[in-house]
Specification:
With 610 residues, this protein is mostly helical. Helices cover 71% and strands 0% of the residues. The protein contains 30 helices and no strands. Helix 8 packs antiparallel against helix 9 and helix 9 packs parallel to helix 12 (226-246). The radius of gyration is 27 Å and the shape is globular. Mean pLDDT is 86; it is low at 1-7 and 253-260.
């Protein structure tokens, strides 16, 4: 009864903090609403037919998930969210970015709610800890570290796993406070189950729940809440089995779960990575979309020394604070960093700010304690809120400015190559982005720059091939695609290289070779719409109408929203004299893309025949 009696005053006490937190988050990241699709959004969303139709809903729970949804890991929660977004917004990026921004704001609110609820249960907390909670949540809301997860739609899994993890902790706290067990148990168990299916980082959730239980109810907290704990454990275990046993993917983009390799080299690399993260907390590092380019390959070099100094200075700050909550915050950071620390798994991208989105909350808490100590030492207690806003507003302004670099791929990768001009990967990504924008001559220059830095990177040769192909240079494009096939490549990219090769052969009127490579494309990816459509047209040109019809109908079955395939079927049925079927497909194409010039021409042609 005591807990319920204090509920209303507590809400009233902390309610005024939520509005400034909301406004800070909007000020920092509201500009993302006007950005487009960038980086992985291109193949996860814009070129992915599976998220555009609810007919693929059941595929979320099948082995087809990985090929259909362009994910290397099993993350059905995020894929389902894309499907729902498409059902509401179509391909308007605004709605997807709004979804990301709402998740970020909810995460900010949950951080504040959890910190203030824990504070109520620990008598030794100073009164100023409510401001520490505000500063922590405020830094989380505005810091540029949060930007990568918020700006990129296809990094939504980081927002989701943090939301589900924090929501689990909040639900558990409500149970420990005496809240409605039936409601909060269901919420806890559901979020425990879904968290791992959003992203693997949720593997640390049981440890965090135990820590909250110990902090709020002592070491034997489970005695009074045995059913709650057992249910949460069962839900998490069920999810764990699905994720890591039933739905594992042979190609997940990470190394084996082991401690293999030179431990000294691993240790040096981890020190460099942690040094970069700590320096970024104080804005001493650029916020790049791919940080691997700033990670030096040497051993005892400048970056290693900077890492050592950064880590030592941060430990000195914590030591001189003489605050046990600072050490607890550091422990939170260490625990949440484990899944992305490169200790057990070798990540393809060893450094990325989206990995820091959740762990950084611990660092923000330490900075909050530091600020409050300064305020109390110099007797600025009455101005703590003003000082907090003076700390947070410049960071919000910078995050707002920096988010504009994520408006489109070309601007983003230009930003990256400006900082790391000798790193091959951003040049290759810039070339692909320029191809997508129709800047083929510029893409050719960028791809050649990438190749000069790393001649054996297949993606650079493929990007060069497409830039040459779209400039009307099929012979040169063919050489680039064949070069790309000489080097190790990921399976999802192989189909695109085969397709480009086939298209180059087709442009050179080598139709038999084109047919062969379109078939290879379909062997690598049976749902490749471009290969299905182009091969169908080759068959139709050869008079093999039935084979062409079969391929086009398969393409429509895969993606009913492809206006181009509908137009091809309209032509085919007109050629066969089946006007009724031609009219049906043209009508569908008109609904999908009424401004398409091919649709208008076919409509005139069909009307002239009637």
């Amino acid at each position: 009864m005591a807990a319920s009696g204090t509920s209303s005053p507590v809400k009233a006490k902390y309610a005024p903090f939520y509005l400034p937190l909301f406004l800070l988050a909007i000020f920092a990241y509201g500009s993302t609403l006007f950005n487009t699709f960038v980086i992985d959004d291109q193949y996860v969303l814009t070129h992915n037919f599976a998220v555009k139709s609810l007919k693929y809903f059941l595929s979320l729970f099948s082995r087809d998930y990985f090929s259909l949804f362009a994910e290397q890991s099993y993350r059905p929660v995020v894929s389902l969210s894309y499907m729902l977004d498409y059902a509401i917004w179509g391909m308007r990026a605004f709605g997807y970015h709004l979804h990301n921004l709402i998740l970020h704001i909810l995460n900010v609110f949950l951080v504040f709610a959890i910190l203030t609820r824990i504070k109520m249960k620990i008598n030794s907390h100073p009164p100023s800890l409510s401001f520490i909670a505000f500063i922590t949540s405020g830094l989380f809301a505005v810091h540029t570290i949060s930007g990568e997860a918020v700006n990129v739609i296809s990094f939504r899994e980081d927002l989701q796993v943090v939301f589900l993890t924090l929501f689990s902790l909040w639900s558990f706290i409500k149970i420990l406070e005496g809240g409605n067990k039936y409601i909060y148990r269901c919420l806890l168990w559901l979020s425990c189950f879904l968290a791992l299916l959003a992203k693997e980082n949720a593997a640390v959730l049981p440890l965090l729940l135990i820590c909250v239980g110990v902090i709020m109810r002592g070491k034997n907290f489970y005695r009074d809440h045995g059913a709650t704990c057992m249910g949460a454990a069962a839900a998490f275990l069920f999810s764990f089995i699905i994720r890591f046993v039933i739905m594992t993917n042979k190609v997940e983009g990470i190394g084996p779960l082991s401690l293999q390799g030179n431990l000294i080299e691993k240790g040096i690399r981890i020190i460099k990575i942690q040094g970069i993260y700590i320096q970024s907390l104080f804005y001493l590092r650029p916020f790049l979309p791919n940080m691997a380019g700033v990670l030096s390959s040497g051993a005892m070099d400048r970056d290693f020394l900077l890492g050592i100094v950064s880590i030592m200075l941060f430990f000195l700050i914590i030591f001189f604070l003489r605050n046990r909550f600072a050490w607890a915050a550091l422990g939170f950071y260490a625990v949440c960093m484990i899944p992305v620390s490169n200790i057990f798994m070798n990540l393809n991208n060893p450094v990325a700010y989206r990995y820091l989105y959740f762990p950084a909350i611990g660092l923000y808490f330490i900075m909050g304690i530091l600020l409050i100590n300064i305020v109390e030492k110099y007797k600025f207690s009455g101005k703590v809120l003003l000082l907090s806003l003076l700390l947070l507003l410049p960071q919000a302004l910078y995050s707002n400015y920096w988010s504009r670099y994520w408006k489109d791929d070309a601007d983003l990768w230009k930003y990256q190559v400006g900082y790391t001009p000798e790193y091959y990967l951003p040049w290759a990504e810039l070339a692909a982005a320029q191809n997508n924008r129709g800047l083929y001559a510029e893409a050719e220059i960028s791809a050649k720059k990438s190749i000069s830095l790393k001649p054996d990177y297949f993606y650079s040769h493929a990007a060069l091939g497409y830039s040459q192909l779209y400039q009307g240079l099929p012979g040169e494009a063919l050489e680039s695609f064949q070069k790309a096939l000489e080097f190790p490549r990921v399976q999802s990219s192989e189909a695109e290289i085969f397709f480009g090769t086939g298209y180059a052969f087709e442009q050179m009127d080598r139709l038999s070779a084109a047919e062969e490579f379109y078939k290879k494309t379909l062997e690598s990816n049976p749902r490749h719409l471009g290969a299905l459509a182009n091969l169908a047209i080759l068959y139709i040109q050869k008079g093999r109408l039935e084979e062409g019809q079969t391929l086009l109908e398969r393409a429509v079955e895969i993606d009913p929203a492809d206006a181009g395939v509908r137009c091809n079927l309209t032509l085919l049925y007109l050629q066969k004299g089946e006007k009724e079927k031609a009219r049906d497909h043209l009508s569908a194409a008109q609904k999908i893309d009424p401004q398409n010039p091919h649709v208008k021409n076919l409509l005139s042609r069909l009307q002239s025949k009637e």
